[in-house]
Each structure stands twice: as C-alpha cells, then as structure tokens.
C-alpha cells in the first residue's frame, strides 16, 4: 500500500465520518455547526494536499479550489435570495463538499455540482414527503443530509 493510497483512503474516511456526524446534528437540531464544518474542510484540504504533493500533481488542487468557491458561492447566492429556504450552514457545508467534488471531477466540476444539487433536491423532497406522511409536520427539512449523501454518491461515481 502506497502513501498516496493511504492519504486518499484517509480523505474518504474523514469525509464520510464528518458527513455522518454533521447529518445527525442537522436532522436533530436543524443546524450545521461552523466548528464541525471547519474541521471537515481543514482535514479534507490537508489530506488532499498531501496526496497532490506525493503524486506531484497540483492540478487537482486547482479544481478542488474552484469547486469549493463555486459550490459555496452558488449556494450563497440562493441563500441571499431566500434565507428562509437555505440556511447559512448549508452554504458553509458547500465549501468542503465542493472541494471534494472538484478533487474527483476535475474539469467536469460544474457538471458534478449540478448533478449533486439535483440529487440533493431529490433527497430533500423525499425527506419532506416522509416528514409529511407522519401525523405532524415538524418544521423545515434539513438540507445538509441530502447534500452529504448526494456528494458522496457523485464523488463515488467520478472516483
């Protein structure tokens, strides 16, 4: 097993572990704590930088940065227009998710983000239907878990 493989596997484990934890918090509290999102981002960036240095390939870092800025920027614009529909935590979470998508999709980052958003909206719709199928409606649907699952799905397809 090479160092590159170890760091790459660690990045996947880091991503999955934090997304599970963040999803559980979002489902229970309808919030995505900044400190948790920041730790996810910092670890993911550090692990991917290590892989890029080991492979001597800086290009994936460019695409990851573009994905981070693009995904978070796009969700920020939506949040500014409809803050009651998309929370600030979702915007912050889009940063590390966009980084991951850029890392795996490279030049196809915009397609990866678009597919992730379509899948996440479908997941949020399913959550809403499940929530409304019960006897009570408990408020807004957490968008973090569908974003997390969609990112993992699209990342796995591209990887």
Please give a structural write-up.
By secondary structure, the protein is mainly α. It has one domain (3-158). The chain has 6 helices and no strands. It has helices at 3-29, 34-55, 59-81, 88-105, 109-133, 144-158. Helix 3 (59-81) runs antiparallel to helix 4 and helix 5 (109-133) crosses helix 6. The radius of gyration is 16 Å and the shape is globular.
For the termini, the CA-CA separation is 18 Å
The major sheet is characterized as: none
Encode the helix/strand succession as letters.
Answer: HHHHHH
Q: What is the structural class?
A: mainly alpha
- Helix count, DSSP H or I runs of 4 or more residues: 6
Total beta strand runs: 0
Low-confidence stretches: none
Strand content: under 5%
When the domains are counted, the total is 1
Shape: globular
Mean pLDDT: 94
Task: List its traits.
globular, mainly alpha, 159 residues
Q: What's the arrangement of secondary structure elements?
A:
Layout: H1 3-29, H2 34-55, H3 59-81, H4 88-105, H5 109-133, H6 144-158
């Amino acid at each position: 097993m090479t160092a590159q493989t170890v760091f790459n596997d660690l990045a996947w484990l880091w991503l999955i572990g934090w997304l599970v934890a963040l999803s559980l918090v979002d489902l229970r509290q309808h919030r995505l704590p900044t400190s948790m999102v920041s730790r996810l981002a910092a670890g993911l960036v550090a692990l991917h930088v290590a892989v890029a240095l080991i492979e001597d390939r800086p290009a994936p870092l460019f695409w990851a940065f573009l994905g981070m800025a693009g995904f978070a920027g796009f969700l920020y614009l939506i949040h500014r227009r409809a803050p009651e529909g998309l929370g600030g935590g979702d915007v912050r979470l889009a940063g590390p998710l966009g980084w991951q998508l850029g890392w795996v999709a490279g030049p196809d980052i915009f397609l990866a983000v678009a597919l992730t958003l379509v899948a996440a909206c479908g997941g949020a719709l399913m959550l809403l239907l499940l929530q409304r199928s019960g006897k009570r409606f408990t408020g807004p649907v957490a968008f973090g878990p569908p974003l997390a699952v969609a990112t993992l799905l699209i990342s796995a397809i591209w990887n």
